[in-house]
Design a protein that fits this description.
The protein starts with 6 loop residues before the first strand and ends in a 15-residue tail after the last helix. The chain has helices spanning 26-29, 43-49, 145-150, and strands spanning 7-17, 22-25, 32-35, 57-62, 76-80, 95-99, 105-114, 117-121, 131-142. The strands form 2 sheets. Strands 1, 2, 3, 4 and 9 form a 5-stranded antiparallel β-sheet that branches. It is elongated, with a radius of gyration of 19 Å. The longest helix is centred in the first third of the chain and has 7 residues, at 43-49. Helix content is 10%, strand content 38%. It is mainly β. Bound molecules: zinc ion. Residues 150, 152, 154, 160 line the site of zinc ion.
């Protein structure tokens, strides 16, 4: 079975930056499953995998623009500690959903705290980076109606939840 729209693709992956440093991998975090065409996966990766089959290995290089976009300075924020009144200890790595001026909300991650201020960044952690994916297709199968309805794969095809391999 080849990779096509509405099929569940399971991958081994190694993600590297321009310098060849490993940023993420299936060896560390387990295989990755996604539904082709469900807007879960980067478009450039989907394009590279389209028509491939289990056992195929594919390398994809994406510019920052094709991957997670350029970093936006607008998404760097400094807020007074008092804004987080109810939250207790604020530590780097914590994520908060913040209401933007245009009414949408954006997830910001705490970068650091400095006295009474908290420095946050709403950019994707991989924004501004050219990325290289080394991929190996483990399996390809048809998505179930329920999976298509949810827009994500279910382990073994039944039950909602994240796959842990
Ligand atoms: Zn689900």
């Amino acid at each position: 079975m080849t990779v096509e729209k509405n099929r569940v693709v399971t991958l081994e992956y190694v993600l590297k930056n321009d310098a060849g440093e490993v940023l993420d991998s299936s060896a560390e975090n387990g295989e990755l499953s996604y539904i082709q065409g469900a807007e879960m996966m980067l478009e450039g990766v989907e394009k590279a995998l389209e028509g491939k089959k289990a056992g195929d290995q594919v390398s994809v290089a994406l510019s920052a623009e094709e991957a997670y976009g350029e970093r936006e300075e607008d998404l760097i924020a400094t807020l007074p500690r008092s804004e987080f009144g109810e939250e207790g200890e604020i530590e780097p790595g914590m994520a908060f959903e913040i209401q933007m001026d245009d009414g949408t909300s954006q997830v910001f991650t705490v970068i650091s705290t400095d006295g009474d201020v908290v420095n946050l960044d709403g950019n994707h952690p991989l924004a501004g980076m050219n990325l290289k994916f080394d991929l190996k297709i483990c399996s390809v199968r048809a998505a179930t109606a329920e999976e298509l309805d949810h827009g994500h794969p279910h382990c073994g095809g039944d039950g909602c939840g994240t796959c842990h391999h």
